[in-house]
Each structure stands twice: as structure tokens, then as C-alpha cells.
Give the backbone structure.
Amino acid sequence: MKIVARDIPPRAAWALEQAGVHPLLARLYAARGVRAKDELDDGLGRLLPPAGLKGIDTAARLLADAMAQNKRLVIVADYDCDGATACAVGVRGLRLLGAQQVDYLVPDRVTDGYGLTASIARRVAERGADVLITVDNGIASVDGVAEAKALGLTVVVTDHHLPGPELPAADAIVNPNQPGCTFESKSMAGVGVMFYVRLALRAELRARGIFNAATQPKLDPLLTLVALGTVADVVKLDANNRRLVAQGLKRIRAGQMPAGVAALFTAAGRKAPVATTFDFGFALGPRINAAGRLADMTLGIECLLTDDAGRAAELAGTLDGINRERREIEGGMRDQAMLMAESLFQEDEEPPPAISVFDPDFHEGVVGIVASRIKDKLHRPTFVFAASSAPGKEHELKGSGRSIPGFHLRDALDLVAKRHPGVLLKFGGHAMAAGCTVDADSFDTFEQALAQVAQEWLDAATLTRRIETDGPLSPEYCRADMVDTLHHEVWGQGFAPPTFSEEVQIVSQRLVGEAKNHLSIKLMHQGNPVDAIWFGHTEQLPARVLLAFRLDVNEWKGERKVQFLVEGAQI
């Protein structure tokens, strides 16, 4: 563990402060690459124009033509939160713009697998569809698109994942990561891409005289869903994504949100008037994701689509129950998988450069979460596999992987596939998260091959866990109102939440929680007593230690006191 302070460009921090930005925020923003105050403008007018997305004008024309002819439109979604919110934005957006026949279909994680397959294309055709629209998938669905086209469907692919060597023969493809697309924000989530397609469709309908600037439907209500899906998918919060998220947060805090989003806040015990990106990532997102992991993502999508508060509350309650079940399954799996991972090396040894574990009792719906937990603890690229539950595919293992900075997971899988043809039945993903399917007999080969790639690509510095922080925290900012100010801003992947680091004196420490797996600490921070908590940590700290911590507020009997959430320690 190494704690490293971010570089803070003094000129940028000074310029921001002179422009009226709070001194602490000026320092934090400067350390994250912000150079001028106008970069912090989150107004809708600052969003990148849709025209920059390759294929979006073609997609808008195709959809406008279909609506003019009252054709049946069917959206093929994905079974995670990004896919669910993208589907809801797609359905709600089309209906807002006047589409009369809109339906959706979401694949089953177990029986269908990921993306637009040939069988899914046939099911869409059986529903009487004329136009098939993918959200958060499709860029790698060469066979599925071919089948849809053979069945006479018009196909519009909207996605954000990295393309493979061959693009599907769709009528239109909208994906900022497709070859030849110059759109500046390559990190947009699937829900963001779908929102942009709706903006382009509205512009096309306006050009056709269906409505004008004064009478056109407002698409702003969709931004709450865009914000939720963007944060939950852990995409990089570049300037454009931060604006999308900020706009959604503003509406939620003002009480302007779909009934399902409001119900999810209630079910999660969170307060919408003070909503933060943490609520999206750690409260609402997991509840929607749980439906796709253990049940049917239709539950999540219906929760986001309904305008009936009672129905929304019922669905949110169901999702909350499924999420509790997910946590129970994950807990047992995590402990077992961690034991298996730690058995790969001796206590006085470093972990192997990459970790792959499989157990026949693992649940394929939560392998990604468990992989993330192991990766966080051991700081190694990690894959967790479960046996496929799909009929006729019991011999296949479905794996989900999470990576560390400096190791591009999808590229690593590509190299494994080239070196060992036939081992990977299919794979895809991003730099930090990916999935793959292997034959059960090939697991050992995959494990060794991935470890070999990691051995070649990773050095000692990359394999050492680093926590980047914003350095010391002045005691004058250790106030509840300052914490509220920080929480109000948009933080997330690629725009890290404020984390500070200082050497502190430990006054006392004890284990708390039902399982005694959290360390409660009383410490002295620059001469002032502060309470701290280190979740999931059980080892005692020395009397003086360099801590990395975030700020939070603990409310007890009406009193609000600042507490530190410990992220790590350098001993």
C-alpha cells in the first residue's frame, strides 16, 4: 500500500479561486484537471452536440420514418442498471416524441447471455416488430443483427462498448467508440447514447414540422435516468458525463423524478433532496442490478417506466428484497472465493499477477461483484467463474473479471484468445471490467494464460496498490457544512471523490458490527479529536499512522459530527 498525494497545479487552483470557487474546491478541481471556471458550467447548453456522433442522423431519420408509418418499435435492452435505464429512456423518449407502438425485451442473463443473439432477434420478430433498437449492447452482435436483417427488421444499434474486428450490418450504428466517430466523449454510458439519440430524433421531427421549438416535448425528465445509469455503470466522468449527471441530480433534489426513482430512494432509506452520486452507485444502482443478477430485469425496467406511485413502491420493495438476497449470496461466495484466492500463495508471499477462481456452487449472477471484492483486497486482476445454468451449456463456465490500473482486461483476453485458440468461447468488455465464457475443461489453461499475460504486462510498481489523495485537510474544513458542500458536487470514476491523507495519532480502536469486521477509531487530527471508521478492516493500527480518508457526517440524536471514512493506511 502506497499513499500518494495528487499534484495540484498552483496556477489552476489560484485561477479557480480568483474566479470565485471555494478554496478547497478550487484545489480539488485543479488536481483533477480543471483549469478554468467555465469548465465547471454544467448547463445543458454546454453539452456536446448530438451531431458529433457518427450514425446518429441516420438513426434519427430511420426512427422518424418508422414513427410516421406507425411501425412497431422494440428495444432490446441489457440486464444491468445502464441497460435498464437506457431502455427506460428509450421507451419514455419515444412515447414523449409521439411513437404509438413501443415495446421492449430484455435478455435473461442465464438462458440468453449477453447482447442481441440470433434467438433474441427471432423473438423480437415474433412480437411483430418492424424496427429493432439495441441499447447498451449490439456492437459485437454480428450474428444477431444478421438474423434480424434476414427476418426483415430495420436494425438500429446504440451502444458504448468497444467494437470487435467486425461491425454488425445494422441500418444505423450509434456508438462513440466505433471506428470513425469523432465524438469527444468516448466514455458515455449506454443510457447517455440513447439520450443523445432521442435528442437527434426530436431535432429530426422538428425539421419535419411535427413540432417547433416552442411546442416540442421536453426531454429533460429523462436526465434523472441518464444520471443514474451513468454513475451505476462506473464510466469515466469526463466533462460531458459530469454535466449529464449534474443535471439529473438537480432534478432529483428538486423532487422532479419518475415515480420509480423516488420509490427506490425510499426503499434504500436515502433522501432525494440531498441526493449524491454515492446514492446512485451504492443504493439505487445495486437494487436495479440485483434484478438482472438473480431474477428478471423486467422488474427493474418496469419500476423505471411506471408513473403509478403505488406500483413503483411495490416494485422498489421487490427489488430491495432481491438485493438483500443478492447480498446474502455474495457474502458466502465472497468468503469462499477469497479463501480460494489466498490459497494460491503463501502468507509471506505476494499474490500471483492475476487471479482466477471457480467453484461449481458459485452463482453466475454475482461473480462480477465477488471478482471486484477480491481485486480490491489483493490488488490483482481477478476473474471469478461459475458454471452456466443455461440448458445444454452445463459444460461452460461464465466468468466476470475486474482489473487494476495499468492492465487492460479486454486486451488481455484478446491476447489469451490469440495464444490459445478455442479456450475462450466468447469474451468482451472494457479495460477495467470484462466477461468471458470458457469450456470447463479449459479453466486451468485460461488461468495460466491470463497469469502469463499479467506477468508480462505488470511490473512491481503497478502491482503495488496506490491510493491517490488530495493531501492534508486543514482543520477549518473539518465541518459538517463543508462535507455537505463536497457531497453536493459530482464525483465518480475518473473524477475521484475527495480523499485526504495525513499522519494521525490513534487514541483508541475497537472492532464493531455484528461480525466484528469494522474498525472503529478515535484519533487526533491536527490536535482535534475525530471519530473514524474503517469498513471491512480488522487489523489494529499503530499509535501513529499515515491514513487516507474521506469525509462523512455521522448524525446522532440531532447532532451532526464529521467522521473520517478510512480508505487505507501506509504503515
